[in-house]
Specification:
Elements (H helix, E strand, L loop, with lengths): L1 E2 L5 H11 L6 H9 L3 E7 L2 E11 L2 E9 L8 H15 L4 E7 L3 H9 L3 E12 L2 E11 L7
Bound molecules: coenzyme A.
The site of coenzyme A (COA) has 21 residues, from strand 4, helix 3 and helix 4.
Length: about 150
Amino acid sequence: MRAMTPADVDAVLNIERAVQAYPWSRGNFTDALNHGYMCRVDEMDEEIRGYAILMPVLQEAELLNIGVAVGQQRKGVGRAMLLEMLDVASKKNMLRVFLEVRSANAAALALYRSAGFSEIGVRRGYYQNANGSEDAITMACELTGELNG
Ligand SMILES: CC(C)(COP(=O)(O)OP(=O)(O)OC[C@H]1O[C@@H](n2cnc3c(N)ncnc32)[C@H](O)[C@@H]1OP(=O)(O)O)[C@@H](O)C(=O)NCCC(=O)NCCS
């Protein structure tokens, strides 16, 4: 994994548009870079396989986005990126990481649970979807220095 740069945004956007029903825009990614959020890509053989974005706020952080290219999913890339983000946050002395995930996103929910996240709340009808709306599950991972996975 390495830091995302503006030159990566095209490749990241291509993945994002392929894997998210409601993808981030180019502006969302460039804003994240410009704001100094922790933006990382997983690259192998000069091909970007995934990306993750963490927004620090004082001693807490929020995982804003994580995605893995369709052909690279279920090979451990997502877990490796997530654990790397938790490690970076831990080394910056952050206390916990939050995230929100669609209630129907079974893959992401399983990934987050396996990395030590617990459900702490539900936001009813938070996300738009094809049927109107769906709930957001809010999750948190306490950073104790002992990472799971
Ligand atoms: C969620 C996502 C990032 C997971 O990345 P990945 O590289 O495929 O995940 P990994 O291979 O590291 O899998 C880690 C764990 O996640 C869970 N998981 C991943 N894909 C899964 C699937 N299709 N079904 C059920 N569980 C799944 C499993 O618990 C898995 O552990 P295991 O392989 O030991 O069973 C990927 O599916 C993705 O990009 N999805 C679209 C974007 C998205 O939904 N992002 C999250 C919300 S912003």
